[in-house]
Specification:
Layout: E1 13-15, E2 20-24, E3 29-32, H1 35-50, E4 58-66, E5 69-78, E6 84-90, H2 99-112, E7 116-120, E8 125-131, E9 136-140
C-alpha cells in the first residue's frame, strides 16, 4: 500500500478489491484498510516484535469522554495494573506530523495522564516522555524498549 519506515511483517489482508481489510492482532478481527490503519498495524507489530511490548497490554481505538464528547485514542499501552502508560496517535503517511497532531494527543493525555506520547505517520515517528513537574515534553531520539519504560 505505502512504503513506511517501519519493519515489514506478515500482513494478513482480506475483504474485496472495493473494500479491503487488514487483520488487527489486538482487536483480533479484520478492519477497514485505510492509510492510517496501515500505519497502525505496522507500528503495533514494530512495538511487539522489535521493542518487546506485550500485546496483552496494548489496545486500539480507546474511547474517551471529554465534556460529553466521545474521543478515540488510536492505541494505548497499559501497565500490569491496567493503568494507561502510553498513548500512540497515527496519521496516514501523506499527513505530516505537525503541532496540531501533538495538540490532539495532548487532549487525550489530559484525560489519561500517561508517561509517554508517540505520534507516527509511518515515515516519521516522535516519542515524548512527559515531565509533569516542569509541564513539558522531553523528546526522545528513539522509541524505548518496553523494559525501559
Amino acid at each position: 500500500m505505502y512504503p513506511l519506515n517501519l519493519p515489514h511483517y506478515q500482513i494478513k489482508l482480506g475483504g474485496t478489491k472495493d473494500k479491503p481489510t487488514i487483520f488487527d492482532i489486538l482487536r483480533k478481527r479484520y478492519v477497514a484498510l485505510t492509510p492510517e490503519e496501515w500505519v497502525r498495524q505496522h507500528f503495533i507489530h514494530y512495538l511487539i516484535e522489535h521493542k518487546h511490548y506485550p500485546a496483552t497490554l496494548l489496545a486500539n481505538e480507546i474511547k474517551l469522554n471529554m465534556a460529553g464528547k466521545t474521543l478515540r485514542a488510536d492505541s494505548v499501552l497499559y501497565d500490569s495494573h491496567l493503568r494507561p502508560r502510553m498513548i500512540i496517535e497515527y496519521k496516514a503517511p501523506s499527513i505530516p506530523i505537525t503541532q496540531k497532531v501533538f495538540d490532539q494527543i495532548s487532549t487525550y493525555n489530559f484525560l489519561l495522564h500517561v508517561d509517554y506520547l508517540i505520534v507516527s505517520n509511518g515515515i516519521d515517528s516522535y516519542c515524548c516522555k512527559m515531565d509533569y513537574e516542569n509541564k513539558k515534553y522531553l523528546y526522545l531520539d528513539h522509541i524505548p524498549e518496553y523494559e525501559n519504560i
